[in-house]
Amino acid sequence: MNAVNIKDEIFWVGVNDYQTILFEGMWPIDQEGVSYNAYVINDEKVAIIDTVKSIKADEYIEKIKSIIGDKMVDYLIVNHMEPDHSSGITELLAEYPDMQIVGNKKTFPIMNNFYKICENLHEVCDGDTLCLGKHTLQFFMTPMVHWPESMVTYDITDKVLFSMDVFGSFKAPVGSIFDGDNDLAAFEEPTRRYYACIVGKVAGQALKALNKLGGIEIETICPSHGLIWRDNPKHILDMYVKMSAKETDPGVVIAYGSMYGCTQKAAEALAIALKSEGVGEVKLYDVAKTDISFIISDIWKYKGLFLGAPSYYGQIFPKMANLLYKLSEIRVDNHKVGFFGNYSWSGGADKNFNAFIECTKADTIDEILMIQGTPDEADVIKLKALAKKMAEAIN
Fold first, then answer.
1. Which end of the chain has the smaller Cβ count within 10 Å, N or C?
2. Within a 13 Å sphere around the CA of 266, how many CA atoms are in the beta-carbon half?
3. Is 261 a residue whose pLDDT tops 90?
4. Chain segment 315-357, per-residue pLDDT in tens
5. What SMART domains does the entry give (predicted)?
6. Three-state secondary structure along 113-160?
7. What does CATH list as the number for 4-244?
8. Helix (H, G, I), strand (E, B) or coil at 275
C-alpha cells in the first residue's frame, strides 16, 4: 500500500511484513503477516512517529518522501524501542541526519545499546508537549507496557492517540488500514492472541495505562500493529479493557499432551462430559500439534481450563512444560483449573502440575486426577465427575 491519509496532515507510512515467520522469534505470523505502523505529521515542523523493522526501511522511507517531498524531518518520536519499531532508525538517520530524536530518559540508554545513537536527543517527561505548528503533541509514559521505556503520543489538535503496542494485533490489514473497511470479527482472535502472548504478562500495568488515558478525548487510535481505529475506536478500547481486567467468557479449554494416545483418550472423554453437562464452548488442543500462542489466546478468553499430560522420565511431557512456563508468566487469574495426568510405571507429571499450582495460586476445582495407562471405566467415571465440577464452577 502507498502512504495513506488518516486525518488532515497525518499520514500512515507503515508496512506489512509477510516475510517474518515468527514474531519475537516465537509466535507464528507466517499465515496472515503483521503490520508495522508508523506515521508522519506534515505540519510546519515534520514529525515522524516510530520507524519500522529494518527489512522494510526502504519502503518506509519512500512513503515518507512521497508525503513531505524535499522537506527535512524535524522530529522522530520513539514511543517504543523494540526493534520491530526502532530498527529502521539507522536508515532514517542516514536520510535525515539533523532530526531530533524524541524519547524519555529510559529510551536513550536502550537506543545507545542497540544502535550506538547518542546525539540530537530530545527528552520528554510525562505530560510534556511539543508544538509542530497546527498540531500539538502530548506524551504519556506507560512503563512496562510492555518495555520500561514505553510511552504513547497524543495529538491534542485532532484527538489522535498514537498508542504504541497498546491496541495492537497480529494480522496485516489487506487493502485498507481502517477499521471501518475491515471485518472486525476476523481481527478478534489475532488481537487476543497478540495481547495474551505479548502484553499478558503485564496486564496489570496495561490496565493502569488504560485508566491513565481514560481522561483524554480520543477520536482515532493509531497503534503500532494492526488496524487504525477511526470509525469505532470504542470497539478496541472495550476489548483491551476486558482483556486487561482478565474478564472471561463461559467455556473450557482442554490442553493436553499425549505420547501414545492414553492422555488423548482422557481429554476426549472430558470434552464429551463437559458438553453433556451443558458447557457450550469446549476447545480441545494437542500441545504437540498446536502452537501455544493459539492455546493461550483461548485460555485468555474462556473461564475454564483443563491441563493434561503424561509423565516423561519422572517429569512432564516437554511440550506441556513449555505451556506451563508461559502460563506461569502470565498467570491464570479468574480461571477455574483442573488437571489430569497419565503414567505407565512411575509418576512425574503430577509433581510439575503441583509446582505450577503453588506458583500461580491457581483456583483448582479438585485434586490432580492421575490415570495409569489407557483410561478404564472407573477412570471415565472420575473424568465425568471432574467435568461436572468444572461445569458448576464456571457457571
1. C
2. 33
3. yes
4. 999 999 999 999 999 988 899 999 999 999 888 899 999 999 9
5. Lactamase_B (SM00849)
6. HHHCCCCCEEECCCCCEEECCCCEEEEEECCCCCCCCCEEEEECCCCE
7. 3.60.15.10
8. helix
